[in-house]
Model the fold of this input.
Amino acid sequence: MGVEADALERLIGFGRELRHRGLNVGTGRIVTFCRSAAALGALDRTGLYWAGRSSLISRPEDAQAFDAAFDEWFREGIRIELDLSTHVPGAGIERDLDELQGLTVDDDRVVAKDWHALDESDEPEGEAAIRIVASAVELLREKSFADLTEEERLRVARVIRRLAVAVPRRRTRRFRPTPGGARFDVRRTLRRSLRTQGEPFHRAWRDRGVRTRPLVLILDVSGSMSPYARALLQFAFAAMAAGRRVEVFCFGTRLTRVTRTLRTKDPDRAMHEIGRQVADWEGGTRIGASLKTLLDEWGQRAALRGSVAVICSDGLERGEPELLRVQMARLRRLAHRVVWVNPLKGSPRYEPLARGMAAALPSIDVFLPGHNLESLEELSRALAD
Done:
């Protein structure tokens, strides 16, 4: 049994031990206990105690029995370093349920936000507990960024930063040695045959190599995009972790490169620094002028040629639509594929009738919504395709 499996077994076993001692501990509480322990990483004995105390019992009269069981079960402590997405029963429904359990950390103690006594009939068991949690997660995935509370916004931001963004790839022109490749390599086969008296016993093959395509994210941070801009920047942060050939730009009335700022392990600090760098945050919108700056300064660089360019904007252009149309055509000639992400497209009644959106539409290969977590997951899959 591995380290993770052993730690998980001890956590689940402790919940069952409490149940055997007569405490009202159902499957839902055990799942919450495991997730809260894993979310806090490596816990000392005190931290683990408060994780269990806040999630496994809800009545003051159960505290004494809990303390006795904890002292016996975790006498030597335990180190928690788990990825519960592959271990906890039912956790395969969503990888990041641990971010959505309604738990906060205060002075190394886990404090439940909804602390109340439960009757035996109120405690969900087995599949019922899993369905309740999955339903809550599904609602949050489908909820628009504009409608999130501040608490929900923080939870969703953490989930977005963990998205597995697949950077697009392309086949190169050059061939390289590959076992079982598509082409027979005559030269390498002949060289190998010199070791076996001219007999080609060991045949060599070759095939085209695979390289990562550049990914360029162009994010609208104007006033009309304010409910969505921070979520899109969190997506850009996740994309930066997928490879080095990623460039990120923000624009309102002018273009600002934020690639270096996002190349950090501290997303909160990066967001704060970007807010300081982008002087036109929540200002006007000049999509055409911003694209012209991008193409004039970066059009001859490898970062843009053959790339997948992703423009995240609602298309409410305040400049000349003709300028946007011309710059979008330039971008389309340089890039391998142009993806436009429009949060307004999340509405079933939306039609791209705005002047800016109508001017850009002929040069767009993929047109996607970007108003909630589910749509960003769809964008991640589109980049992989």
Notes: The first helix runs from residue 3 to 20. The chain has 14 helices and eleven strands. The longest strand covers residues 169-177.
